[in-house]
Structures are given as structure tokens and as C-alpha cells.
Amino acid sequence: MRPTQPLYRRLRRLALTTKQVNGGYYKGTGSGSMGRHTKHGDYVIEWHKVRTYVVPQQLKDFKLTPFVTRNMEPLKGNFEGDKKGGLSGQRYLDRWKRENGVD
Length: 103
Description:
The chain is mainly alpha-helical. It has helices at residues 5-13, 89-100, and strands spanning 35-37, 43-45.
């Protein structure tokens, strides 16, 4: 069974998949390698391959804005009466039982 002509035109506009082409086509993720593996199983970073992003010098006059506002203050957790603070497993279990019911 073959697709109709209008449907076939739409299919040709989509990105290729590995099933549509002959062997040797590897789509990848676009991440690229930033180093190499050694024969001992280590990974050596090759710094000439590492991506660097240049930040503009004058950010106050820069026309593009970030996705996060610059006016937001960092939120602090309130962990009174807990010695471990936010890392306490008991605090997590108490919240889970409060929201989901007793196990």
C-alpha cells in the first residue's frame, strides 16, 4: 500500500528517520563529543572541543532579555525545628503522608 500523492508530499517535508534511508545514516542528538575515551576506561576532556558562550559586555543596554526576571529574589526554605534542614528524609515522608494519606 502506498500513500496518496498529497499525503506523500507532506511526508517528504518531515525530518528523515533512520528507517527511511539506507545504512550508515545516524541522526544523533546534536550534542557532539567533548573528549575521548582512553584504553583504561577514563574520559579525557579535549578543551578545544568544549563549547564556550560569550556574554555581552554591557548587559544593561542589551536589547534581548533573559527568560527569568532579574528582579526575583532567591527563595529560602523554612525548616524550623529540623536539624538537617531541607535534607531531612523524615520531612519528606511527613509531607508525603500529609498529601497522599497514610501508607
